[in-house]
Amino acid sequence: MNKEELANRLYEISLVCFETGSPWKKEQFFSFLTQPFHHYVTVTEEDNIIGFLLLTHLFEEAEIELIGVSPDYQRTGMGSKLLEKTKVLLADTEAESIFIEVRKSNQKAQQFYQKEGFTMIGERKQYYHHPKEDALIWQLIL
């Protein structure tokens, strides 16, 4: 699958993963896939992508830019699988921690990250738009 096809597939999944639709446009996925320091992991079933994690890694820090799992596969361990694949990807690097921002109202995501060993370390006021909302910053020490 070339980068354009992958960007299209990730966009299609993201349309149904998030309550407010895809937070990124198709072009943003393509741009992400073509930039240095950006990485991705996927989980598949029968050659179909059912989940993805987009990551920026620079020196000792990595940041999850976007993570999504098709609704039919949510709460089946796919998010944990994506994080495990990400840890493997970062294992031979100098990465010391992974960060992610989560909507303050997204209790399901917060419970997931806490279960996975992340700690809430801060807050960004008015970080999200459509709708406007604060973000909580979570960190996982590797």
Any overview of this molecule?
Residues 1-142 form the N-acetyltransferase domain. Acetylates the N-terminal alanine of ribosomal protein bS18. It is an enzyme of class 2 (transferase). By secondary structure, the chain is an alpha+beta fold. It has one domain: 3-Layer(aba) Sandwich (Aminopeptidase), CATH 3.40.630. It is 32% helix and 38% strand. It has helices at 3-17, 26-33, 78-90, 107-115; strands at 38-45, 48-58, 61-69, 97-103, 119-128, 133-141. A six-stranded mixed sheet has the order 1-2-3-4-6-5. The chain is globular. The chain starts with a helix and ends with a strand.
List the helices and strands and how they pair.
Elements: H1 3-17, H2 26-33, E1 38-45, E2 48-58, E3 61-69, H3 78-90, E4 97-103, H4 107-115, E5 119-128, E6 133-141
Parallel strand pairs: 3-4
Antiparallel strand pairs: 1-2, 2-3, 4-6, 5-6
Helix pairs in contact: 1-2
Subcellular location: Cytoplasm
EC number: 2.3.1.266
Function: Acetylates the N-terminal alanine of ribosomal protein bS18.
